Amino acid sequence: MKSKGTVYLVGAGPGDPELLTLRGAELLRRADVIIYDLLVNPALLRLARPDAELFSRGKRIVMPQERINEMMISRARDGKLVVRLKGGDPYIFGRGGEEAEALAAAKVPFEVVPGVSSIVAAPNYAGIPLTHRDFCSSFTVFTGHENSADAKINLRYEEIAKIPGTKIVLMGTEKLDEWTRSLIAHGMPADTPAAIVESGTLGRQKSVSGTLATIAVLAREKGLSPPALTILGSVVNLRDKLNWAEKRPLFGRRIVVTRSRLQMGAFSRKLSELGAEILEIPCVKSATPDNKNDFIDALLSLNSYDWLVFTSPNGVSTFFDFFFKRFHDLRDLGGARIAAVGPGTAAKLRELHLQVDAMPKEFIGRKIAEAMAGDGSIENSKVCLLRAQNANADLPRALEEFGAIVDDIALYKTVAETDDYFGAARNFLEHGADWITFTSGTTVEYFHARFDLPRLMKKFPAMKIAVIGPETSRALRALKVEPAVEAKEHTPDGLIAGLLRIK
Ligand code: SAH
């Protein structure tokens, strides 16, 4: 496998991290060094190895091009696998060609991985196909920023104005007035349909449409700013019919996700598939419990239990991580029956091909005990409760009231998370959000300790809160903050359903 000592110029795609290619993802996972541009969605860096060296081309201090070239070359010569991550496709503007030339000149092995360019992706996400049999059969791409280092060749508006077909203008928002006027002056019809898309494919995408004559004013009114591109041509008229992305139910909503990094993936993805812009601000993480001995004792006497009760997917993973460190055969689990609180927990168990014997419909102590008792009873049953340290006392109490003998075993403890991984917390504190979502009371407490929730609600009065269930609402009300949505079904999906009801 050739890889070490090679530089890969990788297209990061237009913004939405899901639009990275499989090849790009694979290389990001393997990279020793990643040098990424400002246009690249930093969420992609989640794929990087924890020990990978990451360099941002930066906003305030822009790393000069020579420095980037030197760095790629020297790291590759040290035998490193270098990924140079560039927005969209590496060979469309943005100097990818020059970087590859520098590598070739230095005789450093390199490969170029194409990316989904904003040229095709941003119009698509604004409901505009670039070609259509009824309207045009060609498209032209040019830059509206003549002085940019990317466009040393002067644009000839008198010629561009005469080219038939769709036109896509990159880097053109700053000089929109000038080049639209210039095109009209050179004979392009002033009523040519026109649209601008800012931050296309991202949850914060904004777009506006009008005509060649009006688009500059409309863009100013709507406050559009780079990165944005402009589309000119009659295909823009299809927007009303084809605008699937902006019609998604949560499009344009900024939603803060506070659950732990390990748990947030699926939840965030569902929300962004519904069109939302996600700010991932994990406020909890799981750590080793203070006392591990109880768990070790329980592991050694699993055979003595009638029931094993899991209350979270994280609990299931943690339990089996430990279990397989000590045992090498699943049969060492013994013959205890298994109860799962919540569909996520049950799904995690089923992944391991374990049957779930009891799964309560409601996640309060008494209902769980009733589900376990079923038609019979759990009197004198030995129950091993496998969950977080300091979890709610309601469940063991209910089980004991039903006559069970309960060992409440701490598998992990939940501690505060304060790292701001991709600048989401900074962004949030500056601009606020439409929604903050909480999936546990502990998360509310840690979020409040970090950000002072009531003060934030005052600063951003339109911001609303959605919670997973009554226990989380209680934690919120203790801070005198009222949730706008409490999920009917106390699961992450239930919470999303709640958001969809209100919108
Ligand atoms: N290589 C990139 C283009 C780099 S030039 C690509 O293939 O997409 C930078 C310009 O691309 C920006 O000024 C803007 O015009 C456009 N652009 C990049 N990402 C964009 C996005 N998400 N939405 C709209 N325009 C975008």
Describe the structure.
The chain is of the alpha/beta class. The chain folds into four domains: 6-116, Tetrapyrrole methylase, N-terminal domain (Cobalt-precorrin-4 Transmethylase, domain 1, 3-Layer(aba) Sandwich); 120-247, Methyltransferase, Cobalt-precorrin-4 Transmethylase, Domain 2; 254-283 and 418-501, Rossmann fold (3-Layer(aba) Sandwich), CATH 3.40.50; 287-416, 3-Layer(aba) Sandwich (Rossmann fold). It is 34% helix and 19% strand. It has helices at 22-30, 65-77, 96-105, 118-125, 157-160, 176-185, 215-221, 239-242, 261-273, 293-300, 313-326, 343-351, 365-373, 394-401, 424-431, 441-451, 453-459, 470-477, 492-502; strands at 7-11, 33-36, 53-56, 82-86, 110-113, 139-143, 166-170, 193-198, 206-211, 228-232, 254-257, 277-280, 284-287, 307-310, 337-340, 382-388, 405-416, 435-438, 464-467, 485-486. The chain is elongated, with a radius of gyration of 28 Å. It starts with 6 loop residues before the first strand and ends with a helix. Bound molecules: S-adenosyl-L-homocysteine. S-adenosyl-L-homocysteine is lined by residues 14-15, 39, 87-89, 92-94, 117-119, 122, 170-171, 197, 199-201, 226-229.
Question: Keyphrases for this structure?
Answer:
alpha/beta, five-stranded mixed beta sheet, single chain, 20 strands, binds S-adenosyl-L-homocysteine, five-stranded parallel beta sheet, 503 residues, Rossmann fold, Methyltransferase, Cobalt-precorrin-4 Transmethylase, Domain 2, Cobalt-precorrin-4 Transmethylase, domain 1
